[in-house]
Design a protein that fits this description.
By secondary structure, the protein is an alpha/beta fold. It contains 13 helices and 9 strands. A 5-stranded parallel sheet has the order 7-6-5-8-9. It binds phosphoric acid mono(formamide)ester and norvaline. The site of phosphoric acid mono(formamide)ester has 9 residues, from helix 2.
Length: 314
């Protein structure tokens, strides 16, 4: 269950709330110093059950830049669900820190953490979605295109976690998101239905196809991700074969608008010319600062035990 101060899925918000996060992220990016004490003294626990460069560094640096602290917890330290249950981890952490970011496998593990913990929980990637990534993607698209409504975004590759969040965010901001996958690798049907429905309200659209050329034609943004995500290492050979016709090459990019940009959430698994991917990666920092700020500003920092003891003695 989602609490009002969690950031688990882009679906949990209204279009206005998503735009508010993006607006705040732009303000923070422009004037970082003005927010230097916004989360003073607050600690965010970073639970990682999968590897990371961008998510770890941007949350770590982001909370410090807001005046708070971070605590990195590796898979070996917690061993979630094995050494200790999700419930017990949530109940411990809510007494020690003011927020939890979690990167894990099953989406349900993160949802349970949010249900059990009274403090804000932020989704740092699950097998199902990657909402912080999509927020950075649309901040980047706004910076380079000066608009979000009506922009055509073609995601070519696997209908995975990154594709799901891109569809949700696109529907929230009125973009036209096309997802082109090989047969059998389409995004989750419920996710598509949600995006189609929300897009009706924002004049956007969500189109799923097996035709990469149709998706790329006239696109303002071409987006791709790895063909085998973390946890799918055993399928690499089979996926390489299935995705070969969906490689983003010059032919496919040539179908896009001449001023189109290329996005990739990174890490990329091959050397290729990429346009704004490092701007996109940096924007993880700014959108996540906005998310932490909105979620954690109301969460109190515990009263010092010393003061309580002194008061009791007097
Ligand atoms: N894009 C992204 O989430 O990168 P990391 O896996 O390095 O965190
Ligand atoms: N789809 C990729 C995204 C990495 C940021 C994965 O889950 O591994």
């Amino acid at each position: 269950m989602t609490k009002p101060n969690d950031f688990l899925s882009i679906k949990d918000f209204t279009p206005q709330q998503i735009r508010r996060f993006l607006h705040l992220a732009s303000a923070i990016k422009l004037q970082s110093q003005a927010y230097a004490e916004a989360l003073k003294g607050k600690t965010l626990a970073l639970i990682f059950e999968k590897p990371s460069l961008r998510t770890r560094v941007t949350f770590d640096v982001g909370i410090h830049q807001l005046g708070g602290f971070s605590l990195y917890l590796s898979p070996a330290e917690i061993n979630l669900g094995k050494r200790e249950s999700v419930y017990d981890v949530a109940k411990n952490l809510e007494r020690m820190v003011q927020g939890i970011m979690i990167r894990t496998f099953a989406h349900e593990i993160m949802a349970k953490m949010a249900e059990y913990a009274s403090i804000p929980v932020i989704n740092g990637l699950t097998d199902y979605s990657h909402p912080c990534q999509a927020m950075a993607d649309f901040l980047t698209i706004f910076e380079v295109k000066s608009r979000l409504r009506g922009v055509k975004v073609a995601f070519i590759g696997d209908g995975n976690n990154v594709a799901h969040s891109l569809m949700f965010a696109g529907a929230q901001v009125g973009a036209h998101v096309w997802v082109a996958t090989p047969p059998g690798y389409e995004p989750n049907a419920d996710a598509v239905r949600w995006a189609e429905k929300r897009a009706l309200e924002t004049s956007g659209s969500c189109t799923v196809t097996n035709d990469a050329v149709a998706a790329a034609t006239g696109a303002d943004v071409i987006y791709t991700d790895v063909w085998a995500s973390m946890g799918q290492e055993a399928e690499i050979a089979q996926r390489r074969k299935a995705f070969a016709p969906f490689q983003v090459n010059d032919g496919l990019v040539g179908r896009a608008r001449p001023e189109a940009v290329f996005l990739h959430c990174l890490p990329a698994h091959r050397g290729e010319e990429v346009s704004v991917v490092f701007q996109q990666a940096e924007n993880r920092l700014h959108v996540q600062k906005a998310i932490m700020l909105e979620l954690m500003k109301e969460v109190g920092v515990g009263v010092s035990t010393d003061l309580e003891l002194q008061a009791a003695e007097n």
